[in-house]
Amino acid sequence: MRDCIYGIDRKVPLLDGKLVRYVNLDNAASTPPLKSVVDGITALAPYYSSVHRGTGFKSRLCTDAYDRAHEIIAEFVGADLSMNTVIFVKNATEAINKLAHRLKSPKDHVVITTRMEHHSNDLPWRYNYRTVHVRATADGRFDEEHFDSLLSEHKGNIALVTVTGASNVTGYIQPIHRLAEKVHNAGAKILIDAAQLAPHRKIDMRPDDDPGHLDFIAIAGHKMYAPYGTGALIGPISEFLDSPPDYCGGGTVHMVTPDEVYWAGMPARDEAGSPNVMGAIAMAIAAETLMKKGLDNIAEHERELTAHTLEKLGAMKGITIYGETDPSKAHEKVGVIPFNLAGVDHALLAAIAGFEFGVGVRNGCFCAHPYVVELLKLEDSEIQKWRNQFKNGDKSGMPGMVRMSFGCYSNHEDIDRLFEVLEMIKMNEYRGKYYQVRETGEFLPRNYKDDYSGYWQYPCSI
Q1: Are residues 89 and 145 in the same domain?
Q2: Where residue 281 falls among pLDDT bands split at 50, 70, 90?
Q3: 117 and 252 co-located in one domain
Q4: Which residue among 28, 157, 312, 421 has the highest number of C-beta atoms inside a 10 angstrom radius?
Q5: In terms of domains, do 278 and 336 share one?
Q6: For the segment 174-186, what is each residue's pLDDT rounded down to a tens digit?
Q7: SS3 for 205?
Q8: Residue 462 lies in a domain
Q9: 456 is a domain residue
Q10: Residue 153 belongs to a domain with what CATH number?
Q11: In this model, does residue 462 exceed pLDDT 90?
C-alpha cells in the first residue's frame, strides 16, 4: 500500500537541521490521503458545482457523483439502502451527536455505553440521556459479563447501546455482532462507533432481519485516508422520518408555506445546506480503494506488524505496554499500541521523537480520559492531585501514555525508527534541551522555532 499513499516519502527538518523521511505512527488520529483520493478530487475540481436541482452539466455531473457516494459508503459497510440511509456529516463525532439528537427513544430511557469509549461516543449521550457504563477488565478489555448484567437490569428501558468497534487507545476489537444479538434480544438497538475500525477491518452491517444486524454505524473519512472533512452516519430510514431534522434550512424540505413545512425524505432531510461534495466523494473513493485492495489483506499485514512490535517492545527494559501484550493475540486488536518508558514523561518522549527523529506519535489520554486513567491504575490521591493542578491551569502533571498506531502502509522500517528513538532516550543521548509549557503540558526544545516557509504557505502570501 505504500505506493498508494500521498506524501509518504516527504522529508521533514530535524532539530539539528538534517532532513529525514517523515514516519507517521499517529494514524489512529488521522491518516494521510490516498493518491486515488487526491487524484480523483483534482480531476473533479474543474467540474465542481452545486448539487441537486442545478440544470447545468457541471451540476448534473456533481449531483450524480455525490449521490453515488452514498451508495458506495453503503456498500462499504454492507448496508441495504432500501431500509437504511447514509447521511454525510463532518466526522464521526458529528454523526454520533446527530443520532443523540435524532434518536426517537424516550429521554427517560437509558443509554448503555462503555468505559472504553472516545469522548465522542460518551459525552453526546451524557447530555441527552441517562447513561450507564460497561466496565473495562483489569487488562482494558470489554467486560461482557457486566454488559450482560446491565442489559438484564435495564431491559425495556434502553434507549440505545453504543460501543466502539475498535478502541482508539488499546486497539481492542469488540465482538460487535454477538453484542448486537444480545442487544436485540433485550428489545433495543445498537450503534457501533466504527471510526477506528473502518480503515483496519471489513465491516458488515448484515441484513436488517439478521439477529447480529448493526442498527447504526458512524465512520470518519479522515481516519480512512480521505481527510477532506466528511464522515457518515448509517442507520434505518424509519428512525429519521417521523421528526424534524436537528439542523434545518436549504435542501431539507420539499416545500415551505407561511404556515407549514413539508420535510424532504432521507438523506436530504438530514444534510442541511450545501453539502461537502468534495469530502463525500473523497470518502467514497477511499472506500472503493480499500475494498479493491482488500481489507482482509490489510488486516493480515497489520496483524504481522503488530505482533512483531509487541514482541520487540515487550523485550525492552523499562517499557510498560497497556492492553494486550501477547504477540499471538495481535489479531484481536487493530494496530494501536500505547506504552510508557519508565522515568520519561510521555509528552517529552513524544516531543523528542518528533523534533529529533521525524517520527510522529501521540501522547496524552487520546480523548478517552476515564479509560486511560483506569489503564494507568492511578490512585485516587494521584487523580485528585492532577484534577487540582488542571483546575489551576497547570497541565504539566497530566497522566498519559505514548501511542503508536499503524496505517495500511506502515512497515518494519517505520517501527525500527521508533525503537531507535527509545534506545537513544534510554541512553540519554538526545540533543535538545526541553522545557515544559505549563498551560498545555507539551515539551518544546529551547532556542528552536519551526520555519514552515519552505514547505507550505497560503498562496497569496508567497
Answers
A1: yes
A2: very high
A3: yes
A4: 28
A5: no
A6: 999 999 999 999 9
A7: coil
A8: no
A9: no
A10: 3.40.640.10
A11: no
d(CA 437, CA 441): 5
pTM passes above 0.85: yes
Residues 6+ apart with CB under 8 A from 271: 87, 88, 251, 252
| Same-domain status, 93 and 125 | yes
Spatial CB neighbours of 9, under 8 Å, sequence gap ≥ 6: 21
Owning domain of residue 148: 37-292
For residue 354, which of 225, 444, 451 has the smallest C-alpha distance?
444
- Identify whether 454 is part of a domain: no
Alpha-carbon span 448 to 306, nearest angstrom: 35
Percentage of the chain lying above the pLDDT 90 cut: 92
Q: How many Cα atoms occupy the beta-carbon half-sphere of 96 within 13 Å?
A: 30
CA 163 to chain centre: 13
**Can you tell me the distance from the alpha carbon of 333 to that of 131, in angstroms, rounded to the nearest whole number?**
26
Instruction: Report whether 19 contacts 12 (CB < 8 A).
Output: yes
| Closest by CA position to 179, among listed 157, 206, 199, 200 | 206
Three cell numbers, residue 75: 456498500
DSSP 8-state assignment for residue 436: E
Whole-number Cα distances in Å, 250 to 57, 237, 268, 446: 22, 20, 10, 51
Q: Give the number of other CB atoms < 10 A from CB of residue 133.
A: 18
Phi, psi values for residue 187, rounded to 5°: 80, 25
Cβ atoms of residues 98 and 246 within 8 Å: yes
Mean pLDDT of the chain: 96
pLDDT digits (tens, 9 = 90+) for 183-226: 999 999 999 999 999 999 999 999 999 999 999 999 999 999 99
Q: Are residues 287 and 298 in the same domain?
A: no
Assess whether 205 and 335 both reside in one domain.
Answer: no
From 233, 264, 292, give the residue that closes a domain.
292
| Judgement on whether residues 397 and 424 belong to the same structural domain of the protein | yes
Q: Are residues 15 and 127 in the same domain?
A: no
How many domains does the structure of the chain reveal? 2
Q: How far apart are CA 193 and CA 445, in angstroms?
A: 37
H or E segment and range at residue 40: helix 35-44
CB environment 213-250: b (16+ within 10 A), e (fewer): bbbbbbbbbbbbbbbbbbbbbbbbeebbeeeebeebee
Boundary residue ending a domain (244, 264, 292): 292
